[in-house]
Amino acid sequence: MTDEPTTLASWTRGLRKQGDALAALCSEVGLKPRLLAATRQSLALQHVRDPRGSIGERACLLGFADTSSFSRAFTRWAGQAPSHYRDGLKQP
């Protein structure tokens, strides 16, 4: 544990280190970051189609920090919010 106070700067440094570690791990096993992102996107679309779980549960399952982060990413991918996407699937 460090004596450095928790600041936005120290927190983001920690996140960069985690991101660097993930990138290194992906490289070690031959997984390309784009493939990882595409897989996450595909899983998000599949999971939102399943009406048994909440959007928040799906966000957690896919490793998003919170529902808002998931919703923003999903909207980028699908062009609409996950709840609207799911509602559109219910239409005859």
What topology does this entry show?
Blueprint (H helix, E strand, L loop, with lengths): L7 H22 L3 H17 L5 H7 L5 H12 L3 H9 L2
Helix pairs in contact: 3-4
How would you explain this protein's 3D organization?
This protein is mostly helical and 92 residues long. The protein folds into two domains: 1-31; 32-92, Arc Repressor Mutant, subunit A (Orthogonal Bundle), CATH 1.10.10. It has helices at 8-29, 33-49, 55-61, 67-78, 82-90. The model has no long low-confidence stretch (mean pLDDT 78).
Give the gist of this structure:
The protein has five helices and no strands.
Task: Compute the number of helices.
Answer: 5
Q: What's the CATH architecture of the largest domain?
A: Orthogonal Bundle
What is the level 1 CATH name of the largest domain?
Mainly Alpha
What number of structural domains do the residues give? 2
Main sheet, how many strands, which sense, barrel?
A: none
Give the ordered list of helices and strands: HHHHH
Q: Roughly what is the average pLDDT, rounded to an integer?
A: 78
Radius of gyration (CA) equals 16 Å
Overall shape: elongated
- First-last Cα distance: 56 Å
Question: Quick one: how many beta strands?
Answer: 0
CATH homology superfamily name of the largest domain:
Homeodomain-like
SS content category: mainly alpha
Proportion in helices: over 70%
The unreliable regions are none
Percent in strands: under 5%
CATH topology of the largest domain, anyone?
Arc Repressor Mutant, subunit A
